[in-house]
Design a protein that fits this description.
By secondary structure, the protein is mainly alpha-helical. It has one domain (about 30-245). Helices cover about 70% and strands about 0% of the residues. The protein has helices at about 1-20, 30-60, 65-75, 80-90, 95-110, 115-140, 165-180, 185-210, 215-240, 255-260; strands at about 25, 240. Helix 6 (about 115-140) runs antiparallel to helix 7 (about 165-180).
Amino acid sequence: MAQGQARKSEGWWRAFHEKFIVEERYMAGTARRNLYRIAVGLMIVGAALFVVILAGVLQRGGVSDIDAPVRSWLLTLRGEPMTTLMIFLAIVFGPVALPIIILVVTVVWGFMARHAWRPILLASAMLTGVILAQIIGRSVGRERPPVDLMLFGEDFTFSFPSGHVLGASDFLLVSTFLIFSRRRNTGSAVLAFVAAGIGVVFAALSRLYLGYHWMTDAMASVSISLVVLGAVIALDTWRTARIPGEQITGTLSTEDSSQG
């Protein structure tokens, strides 16, 4: 009986191991180094942009000087059809609809995929973005634009950074990488990232148009998202990218497999 329980336990561990731990792909050493370079580059650029934006916000100058002109320009674009579209985008990328979308995507992806590594990584990236937005928002304590400019209800929470934009940016950029990094067609990946970028722009535009954020709030969110994306690329590459002939450390040994 003890031997049977041991085999059952070993079988459960193998199933868990293969579903949640093992996911490896092979590529040339140059390709893997390029992924690490991209990851580091994204994190450096994102962090540098965030520091510049934060400095401007705290000092009430520098890059934050664009906030008032952008707001004034968007006020001239307001109209019923545009407002309806922007409210729709705000709902889709909002704190109710977006978490539901992410939950459905990660659960369905996790069950359908052979390995759950990527949906777990996506969920972790989204959670990281939420935590960062809360910490930074409470630390900076920036006020939102005047309440009388808000078109979709009053909001008195902190403005910097935009949680809507950060969530949309993390979801679109990270999921695009996790999906298209496994495909060999570079053109499709480029088009997918262009589409993701357009989605981020619309998410940011909706928050600015509806009067809930300053331009630098949205810019800060995108810069944070670049750091998150870089971290995801680095972690995913470290965990899954293998060079042909390289020793694999995350799988069961041949001896273990034969005993099953």
